[in-house]
Amino acid sequence: MTPVNPPPLDRTSPPPLPDPWQRPPSALPERVRIRVLRQVYGDPRAAAELAARLTERQAAGLDPLPAEPARLAPALLAARRRAVRALPDDTRLLLLLAAADQYPVATHAFPRAVAAARLDIRPLEAAEAAGLAHATTDGVGFVDPWTRIAAYEAAGPADRRDVHRLLARVLHGAGEGPRRSWHRGAGALGPSGRLAAELTTAAAQARDAGDPALAAALAERAAALAPGPREQARLLAEAATDAWNSGDGNRARLLAARTPAEATDGLLALRTGHAGEAFDTLLQGAVRVAGTANGPAGTAEGTRQAGTAEANGPVGTAEANARHLLARAAEAAVYTGDLRRCREAVRAARRLGIAPPGVLAGLAAAVDGRYEDARNLLEATAGRCGPGGDPTLLVHAAMAALMLGDHTRATTATVRAAAAARTRGITPVVSQAMEFRAYADFWTGRTRAAEAAALDALRQAYATGQDNGACHLQAALAMFAALTGDADLCRERAAAARSHALAHGLGLPAALAQWALAFLDLGHGRHDAAAARLRALAGFGPGHGHRAVRHLATPHYVEAAVRTDDTRAARAAHADYDRWARAVGSPDDLALSARCRALLTPGADAVDHYRTALDLHAQGTRAFERAHTELLFGGALRRLRRRTEARERLHGALEAFEAFGAPHCADRARTELRALGAPAAGRRAPESRTAHLTAQQLRVARMAAEGATNREIAARLALSPRTIDHHLRGVFTRLGIRSRIELVRLLEEGEGDGG
Prior knowledge:
Elements lengths: L29 H10 L4 H10 L2 H4 L9 H4 L1 H12 L3 H14 L7 H8 L6 H6 L3 E4 L2 E4 L2 H9 L3 H14 L6 H10 L6 H16 L3 H14 L3 H17 L3 H8 L5 H11 L2 H17 L6 H9 L11 H19 L2 H13 L6 H10 L3 H12 L8 H13 L3 H18 L2 H17 L3 H17 L3 H18 L2 H17 L3 H17 L3 H13 L7 H6 L1 H10 L3 H18 L2 H13 L6 H12 L5 H17 L3 H18 L2 H14 L18 H11 L4 H8 L3 H15 L4 H13 L3
Antiparallel strand pairs: 1-2
């Protein structure tokens, strides 16, 4: 059976694209392209093959991608199978044993299994000679994942069961119970209630240990062995939630499609579907689950109906599951901006005898004008940000802190949420925490680092199937682009965010994107456009706007309205903002309220209000808004002919805007200084030529200088190649150069000079 010369492994030629689909991966939307690469283990040949076979709905990201290897890259896998089958029998046996030991559950038992079966590992030399695999200190290293899959699939069912049983026999160490159960289940001939129960227990242990990926594999195998359809559906729902928590959104969607579990449907809809539908599903699930606590079925029935509602740990009592579903419903209500749903959830929680989630109750109280009640509810939620807590509740603490204007506590809560999520293996919450961290980073002036972190979170959101979270991050990145004055990037990000948000009922990112465009207009002195956008934002309904964003944008609206002589609307908006600021007591909110009062006060009487605003800013954390207040104050002092103090305020604003990487705002400060007849160069050391680039242009320029193509840069920054081309043309124009060679030379000189 052993050939004299095994067929060589083809490492260069991609498989031909099958007709009628001739779609390269580059033609796919960014979120789908990232998922395709993840699904095929980053192999570009397999990505080309899969992209060519996608349906139109899959290519648009509407349906999940295939999961079976034979549907992912059949031509590539067939070639690998032929190469494996050409090997000697004893070599194939070793490769089969190694493959079963590695995927989908890594058990690290290959050396023990070889010793127990008294196998000779010298036949692995044939696999090494064929370029397929090689021996390592603790097992076998395959040349790529497709070879490992081929080694497993090339064997017959009986041989596979035999190696799984062998691996199960040698897994008897402490903590190896779940993996032993996996192999026992994989070695089963058919349905077995006993094995299904064992795998279910093992899945719960894996969940407790913070390994949702292992829990998902165990629960899915338990479903395959369960004797009844009801038990199968419950286990598939558990597997779907575990897969989601592990970051495998594609697998979660495929599994969820096979079960009608409300908890799983609601969780997936919250992060991938229509937020309004997610809210309805989650609230109905909470009511149904809570109702079982007093029914004849008791807690056990509540646990069954909840499925895997408790995403951050083992399923507990019916009341605990209902509370968790309500917390998820609260998130959905916050994302939609639907005030009717907020009130509905609060009423439902009270009917069930469950305390409403603090974020939800606080938002509902604020909408009703009960600002003191809202403050107390939000303060209680924001205070729950201790280390090691429930990641979901820590994200809620961050939301509450942001509403209270407490950016320090919001940052702490998001950092701890991400850390707790990593510890528990709940991957999706990491990028979700970054959605709300972006707000705090924006206001505190950490623009460049925050933008880079948001881009990483955006790619992670796409990879894990969180399209709604990615939409929110796109809106946040639009805000960062507005701050740095990158108009084209701001508009592109805002358009992408609003397009997805409006189709999925996401009022929060839709409103944030609209605010970003208004902020851009305001920064460039287009007050009419800014006022029109913010006025429209106040009138947007659920799924299009958001009360919290409208509130946060009030100081900008007041400024734009005053500049367009619409003082009546500005005074009304400020009165409500001031009442909230006084109720909350946030120095930043009080500072912005004082600034609004200064803008609404004519002549020299405004000076004291500006000074009050700056005194309050000194106690807060919104560094960028403090610089903006100094800019406005400096302009007011110039018009009052108080030249010395005006010059001091404007220089302070200029230095701050330069540090934040906001060149358009710095230009406004320079314009004011020139009107004073004062030097406008700022107080920093002379800048290199690259100082004239925006933060995004500088990032693109550096990648291009490193040799990356436009398409590679686009993939890394989650932008279109057309946008990268536009940025590079802008870079060349601003730097006065014509080629990438000149760009490399200029950047090297700039870095050498500390530029």
